[in-house]
Design a protein that fits this description.
Blueprint lengths: L6 H37 L4 H15 L1 H10 L8 H15 L1 H26 L1 H10 L12 H10 L5 H10 L4 H28 L2 H29 L1
Helix pairs in contact: 2-4, 3-4, 3-5, 4-5, 4-9, 5-8, 5-9, 7-9, 7-10, 9-10
Length: 235
């Protein structure tokens, strides 16, 4: 006979689900806002495509060192990781080659995950804990047998931004080696697919764009299956 679920555990699960729903709604609202602004500017006769092209040229002019340094650092400050993965190929694919761009993107991601973990578990931990308490939440105690499950669920659950995933896992004080290895194995394929897709899309390579979007779809379906598997396991 299974043990009854503690009321506190039910409350924590409900709060976590509500927080994830709020994150999803916030991301959707941001996307809709960006699309609305772009549509408004286009209706007003503003050359949105030209502005995007000029922006990409400006970033390209700064060079790959500055770009990949920003890829490694800025997501730790909350900037979406997808901003870099979607533009890395179009910006530097012709200059460096797609394979090297993918490698540099993944290396920058490793640096970012390491930096975020250190900030969350050491330097910013007192501040972040105070903010979480003020918001009415508390950090759960992670048992050693639950660490892998938590990392996998955090990485494959949609709606949680990449920077938030890193900080939450860092706050949980999961062993760094396990955190980095499992996170990289999950994040590397999807980030590589986004680099390939972004490069092909802006260059008009229909075949490669199809390969990139196919990889993204397959990985998304795989993540969903993994999430359901671990969700049933934890239940």
């Amino acid at each position: 006979m299974s043990e009854p679920i503690e009321p506190a555990a039910v409350t924590e699960m409900a709060e976590s689900s509500a927080a994830i729903r709020r994150m999803r709604l916030a991301k959707l609202a941001l996307v809709l806002l960006v699309l609305a602004v772009c549509g408004f500017l286009a209706l007003r006769g503003y050359d949105v495509k030209g502005a995007i092209h000029d922006g990409l040229e400006f970033v390209r002019g700064a060079g790959p060192v500055a770009f990949f340094a920003a890829t490694a650092l800025l997501p730790a400050l909350g900037m979406p990781q997808s901003v870099f993965t979607m533009t890395a190929g179009p910006l530097f694919g012709a200059q460096l080659g797609t394979a090297l761009v993918v490698f540099l993107t993944l290396f920058a991601m490793l640096v970012n995950m390491t930096l975020s973990y250190w900030l969350a578990s050491r330097l910013l931990r007192p501040v972040l804990e105070a903010v979480i308490r003020r918001l009415g939440y508390k950090l759960p105690e992670v048992q050693s047998g639950d660490e892998t499950d938590l990392i996998v669920l955090m990485r494959v659950t949609p709606g949680i931004p990449f920077p938030a995933q890193n900080y939450l896992l860092g706050l949980s004080r999961i062993p760094f080696g396990k955190y980095l290895l499992i996170s990289f194995l999950i994040q590397a394929p999807i980030n590589s697919a986004f680099v390939i897709f972004g490069d092909a899309l802006l260059k008009g390579k229909g075949g490669m764009a199809f390969v990139g979007i196919s990889l993204i779809v397959v990985l998304a379906i795989g993540a969903q299956l993994v999430r359901k598997h671990y969700g049933k396991k934890r239940a």
